[in-house]
Amino acid sequence: MTSTSSVPDTAAAARAFHAQFADISTCGATGGGGITRLCASAADGEARHRFADAAREAGAEILVDAVGNQFALFRLSGIPGAPLVMMGSHLDSQPKAGRFDGTYGVVAAGCIGASLMRARHAGETFAADFCAVNWTGEEGARFRPSLLGSSTYAGSRRIEEALSSRDDAGITLCEALDAIGFLGTDRPPPLPACYLELHVEQGLVLEKAKAAIGLVTRNWGAAKIDVVFTGEQAHTGPTPMPRRRDALLAAAYLIAEVREIAERWPGRFHSSVGRLLVEPNSPNVVPARVELSVELRTADDRLLTEASLMAEAAIAEAASRAGISSTITGRTLRPIRILPEAVCDLVATCAEEASLRSLRMDTVAGHDAISLLGQCPTGIVFVPSVDGVAHNEAELTRPADLEAGLAVGLRAAWRLCRAGGSPERALLFKRPDEASGAVR
Ligand SMILES: [Zn+2]
């Protein structure tokens, strides 16, 4: 075995990253500088091809599983059945979204895999293989719920259930994936020894603290309640006001009340109604039916329970005030959880080596990594978002910050792959550029 231990070439990885990121950003590009790349749309299909082509060119083998998750496997170890280090995120987006959300983590993971492969060809030895992953349908914009691909991979959702999810036009995920050629038949790789996700923060914490790297230690809980209000279709002109059974009026009462719930705990509670489906949605017709989703987020279990009860009471109250009926059609709960310390410690060490200030923090948004939490050591690494703008075409992370995250991710992946995937063992390795005598 050789001990040439080449230093991960962060400059080359950064050049490759910027080129690939610019290329993929053209898939679903909007006039306002952002993207609309809904899950399993033509633009998503195009982005998937570009990701796969670049990874294949760098020596990866591409697998696509039954729900369209794409895995780029870089066989670094030469050992059959070697442990796997996995990094990735998602290429799908919200409508009129930013370019960085999700895509950053996928493209960075692909470039990290390519760097490690180059190191291997230069004589480096690894005890784990590396996989860059693009998870299907993280956003929940077209197919609900969110984190669809990663939660199916992690075993918390059945494949049939995920594939039968329908968009607002009635198209199933199965049909949409088939249409873009990504309804795969490959068996996905086994659970990794460690999963790491690079993502833009989408908040203001790093910017305010002037820190380059965020180490996520806990995720906020989220409760989502899907509601249908059913009234009666009528003419908006002659129908006397007392006779109207207006489903949209009930929705309006509820939306205002959902905001009030968050106002009770300033800074500690976020709430919204972000989606509304009005039928028949015509200016001259009293709405007969409204479908909406209530979302509640906090890092306090007690508040989440209390607020969920308040929201359910508000739904019934809004329906009764408008003289119509309500049905709760779905409830999802993402519990508040702590991320493993060993992964944070490893990434903190890598940040320190790269002379970057890091900060331990919460994630308020959900990420694919949360699906794998509890299944394997899991970490989320944030880079700053300018002014915290997210799910908006103006979303921005500066090139230097993108490169900082990439450099830290590369160091962490290098250590993990050398250590057979264990974050505890990876911490024992010396920094890559002093690694000739590193622990083996
Ligand atoms: Zn995301």
- Please state the structural category: alpha/beta
Shape: globular
Global mean pLDDT: 95
CATH superfamily of the largest domain: Zn peptidases
Largest sheet features:
9 strands, mixed
Number of contiguous helices: 13
Please report the first level of CATH classification, the CATH class of the largest domain. Answer: Alpha Beta
Rg estimate, integer Å: 23 Å
Q: What keywords describe this structure?
A:
four-stranded antiparallel sheet; binds zinc ion; disordered N terminus; nine-stranded mixed sheet; alpha/beta; 440 residues; disordered C terminus; 35% helix; Aminopeptidase; globular
Describe the structure.
This protein has 440 residues and is of the alpha/beta class. It has two domains: 10-220 and 337-437, 3-Layer(aba) Sandwich (Aminopeptidase), CATH 3.40.630.10; 221-334, Alpha-Beta Plaits, CATH 3.30.70. It has 13 helices and 15 strands. It has helices at 10-24, 42-57, 103-121, 148-153, 159-163, 173-179, 205-209, 247-263, 301-322, 341-353, 368-372, 399-418, 423-428, and strands spanning 61-64, 70-74, 84-89, 129-134, 194-200, 213-219, 221-230, 234-235, 269-279, 285-286, 289-298, 325-334, 337-338, 358-363, 378-383. The strands form three sheets. Strands 1, 2, 3, 4, 5, 6, 13, 14 and 15 form a nine-stranded mixed β-sheet that branches. A four-stranded antiparallel β-sheet has the order 9-11-7-12, covered by helices on one side. Strands 8-10 form a two-stranded antiparallel sheet. Helix 3 (103-121) crosses helix 12. The longest helix is centred in the last third of the chain and has 22 residues, at 301-322. It is globular, with a radius of gyration of 23 Å. The termini are close together. Mean pLDDT is 95; it is low at 1-6 and 435-440. The site of zinc ion has 6 residues, from loops.
